[in-house]
Amino acid sequence: MDKQAIHQRIIDTLAADLDVLQRAAQTAYEAATHEENVAENKYDTLGLEASYLATGQARRTEEIRQALKRCRELPLRPYDEQLGIQLGALLTLEAGNGSEQWLFLAPDAAGLKVDWEGRPVTVISPRSPLGQALLGKVDGDEVQIAVAGVRQNYWVTCVS
């Protein structure tokens, strides 16, 4: 597992997402402020709808900008078994049914998936139940979380 390369792929994906969203937000802003979208009566809501869209996109743009900043600032340290899993860890989890998933523990950007050598790597944060349960665990440890009232068991099979 090449933690540095996966970390860079996460940063590149966030940067590309930010670029696309900034352009979409600018387009929505222009639509919201265009003179043709000024309401002619109380039922004419095109300008109002465009302004809601622009506001939502601006918020999402800021969320991605902050996630990108935090991921860029994340120091990647070698795995230390004394500390266990910490921010910046790349790990694999195995479920009871034998399925395996690769995870990258980041300060933000939870849910983002990047492809690495044909495998999906999912970004999780320590704010998630799984992220919280993983902190401090070491290779071989069992992790239990409850999802919708159902207890799920995983085993840490590799950490870097």
UniProtKB/TrEMBL annotation:
GO terms for biological process: regulation of DNA-templated transcription elongation. Keywords: Elongation factor, Protein biosynthesis. One of its GO terms (molecular function) is RNA polymerase binding. Pfam families: GreA_GreB. InterPro entries: GreA/GreB_C_sf, TF_GreA/GreB_CS, Tscrpt_elong_fac_GreA/B_C, Tscrpt_elong_fac_GreA/B_fam. Residues 123-156 form the Transcription elongation factor GreA/GreB C-terminal domain. It comes from the Bacteria. This is GreA/GreB family elongation factor. It comes from Pseudomonas vanderleydeniana. The lineage of its organism: Bacteria, Pseudomonadati, Pseudomonadota, Gammaproteobacteria, Pseudomonadales.
